[in-house]
Specification:
Helix 1 packs across helix 3. This protein folds into two domains: 31 residues, no CATH class; 84 residues, Wheat Germ Agglutinin (Isolectin 2), domain 1 (2-Layer Sandwich). It is elongated. With 118 residues, it is of the alpha+beta class. Strands 4-5-8-9 form a four-stranded antiparallel sheet. The relative contact order is 0.17. The protein has three helices and nine strands, in the order βββαβββββαβα. 25% of the residues lie in helices and 36% in strands.
Length: 118
């Protein structure tokens, strides 16, 4: 690499590494996975859509009828809590029977982590 461009998230300012500047130097913008999921959630809420698609996963918003174990943190999802169930698109019946579950507030970090572990 001759010249380097630093990559920063336009939403949160997080450093996202560097890339070949191809003759240019400075900083360029992008959007980090966490902010991308937040943006998708905001759009879904504005349009009344309860489904988010990101990184091959499909997340559907639900209201809990019973207590569920959350995959995103150590806290349970309690009855009446809003949560997302996540499945891999085209993942088959096992995913539908045993989806990942995430609190609404934990979803951006959880989904971004799933994307980076693929």
């Amino acid at each position: 690499m001759g010249t380097v461009l630093k990559i920063r998230c336009e939403w949160c300012g997080k450093s996202m590494g560097e890339k070949d500047g191809k003759g240019a130097t400075g900083t360029t913008g992008s959007i980090c996975p966490v902010c991308r999921v937040k943006k998708l959630m905001k759009h879904a809420a504005a349009t009344g859509d309860n489904r988010i698609r990101f990184g091959g996963y499909i997340a559907d918003l639900h209201s809990a009828h019973k207590t569920h174990r959350a995959n995103c943190c150590d806290k349970d999802i309690l009855p009446c809590d809003k949560y997302y169930s996540l499945v891999i698109g085209g993942g088959g019946v096992a995913w539908l029977k045993h989806p990942y579950r995430s609190h609404k507030d934990c979803l951006p970090v959880f989904m971004a982590g799933l994307e980076t572990t693929k």
